[in-house]
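pasting for ref. prot 1 ->
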Amino acid sequence: MAQIIYGIHPVKEALASSPLHFQKVMVSARNPSPTLQSIIDLTREKKVSIAFTDKETLDRMVKGGLHQNIIAILQEIPYADLGEMLSKPKQEGTKTLFLILDGIQDPQNLGSLIRTALGCGAHGMIIPKDRAVGITPVVIKASAGATAHLPVARVVNIAATIDRLKNEGIWVYGASGEAKDMLYSLDLNIDLAIVIGAEGKGIRPLVKKKCDRLFSIPMKGPVSSFNASISGGMILYEVMRQRMKM
């Protein structure tokens, strides 16, 4: 099933990393800006079909989204193979870092987490197949093109996947608001997978039981928890900070 992504940065990033997934790029600009012209040139360089049309056509296709005069029609973006994701850190000789999302349903949150995970050096992300958002055009847009670079595996059973990670020697830590251990007291310079739960609900009980350790993020005020993408950003940055100190 074809998907649409739009906006200068998402289209440019996707073109640079995975042009084989493109069916066509559509542009509406009589006098393209230098930035837009560079994407037109890149489209031709990658031998991707390009069509020029009017702004109204693009407006209808994105249904009110900010397309910046360019959209791309892609084949369905394939999910990563979990086995290949697991082998990558070993090949690189680096400490493993995966992000596991247990039921995230907001595409903006997923896109933001993909972008943050990529920027903090994660090797990949694991999401459930059911009752959670997948890689959609909105997610691609929110990630600012990061979906083209970070492997995302989609699995049937998160709990069983955690068991597989443990068998590979990876520690699994879950973010939980009621946990006594604080994020900043943990040693995160280990082979690690971080679990973040759904907005408002947190990690499901069975998945929580599978975690080797639960931790919380210190916070003040009347609010009981942070937004999932904000929490993920703080956690991932702390992992990166600790690893950069070593």
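and prot 2 ->
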Amino acid sequence: MQITPPTWDDLRVLLAVYREQSFLGAAKHLGLSTSTVSRRIDALEGSLRRTLVRRGPDGTTLEPDALPLVNLAEQLELGLDSIQRGPDQSAAAGTVRISMGEGFVRPVTRLLTELRTRHPGLQFELSSEHTFVDLARREADIGIRKAPSTSKVLVQRSVGSLTFALYAASSYVDRKLGAASIRPEDFRRLDFVGHDKTLARLPQSQWLAARGVERWALRSNSDLAIEEAVVGAMGLAMLADAQARALGGLVRVECGEPLPSLPVYLAWHHELSRVERYRTVLRALEPALRAGLR
């Protein structure tokens, strides 16, 4: 029996299943019914005479034989995207999806606002989250990460480190401390603001827990809430130095203890390096992150 080559329509369905990790998610993404997605995958597997997708109670997984087809689908998608942008291939236009921790949202948004004045054809989608999306599956285009990836399809560059320190509003320092320093025994008696128990694994959360912090004026899974609380003089907070500089009006409080830090990486799917809109955003992001993390 002759093997029928897959069409773009077949490959885009397989690509959607790979990215969404379920038939239901793929169907919603493509605007199709779940049964249609299932039939298309069955037909593709039948034409190639091999299994590509494993169905399970926790979603779908792709067989190794399916990955070259996924890579082909991604290349076709990028090529078609370039054609749809029109004859001026040097123009930076279209949507760029960027994923990052909430602490990066304010400076990155400011940068993108400036960038769009020079490239009005660009549109942006920003995802702020503590559990990062999968760049290899193209759930976002560009990611700002605090841990390196092991994926072979991603390009990643180290852009610096987030260094942390204790900060407080000057009014809190005047009222509670008297000077911008504290002693080890002060951690149990002073008020703090920080992340809640769902983010206990963050290095700043572990650092505070190791020093016996007990008095939590506010705990939250939102960096914005923590920022507002420390600016409003609710208590001390362990903030990234870059984050505190962006807020302004805060005093760095010395404690005589070794402080945590985290490496920061800029990451993207290697195929995106060929597309002008992604190159334009990366050319702006990388130096800005390096400067901000010094």
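The domain at 8-82 is CATH 1.10.10.10 (Arc Repressor Mutant, subunit A).
Residues 8 and 76 are 8 Å apart (CA to CA).
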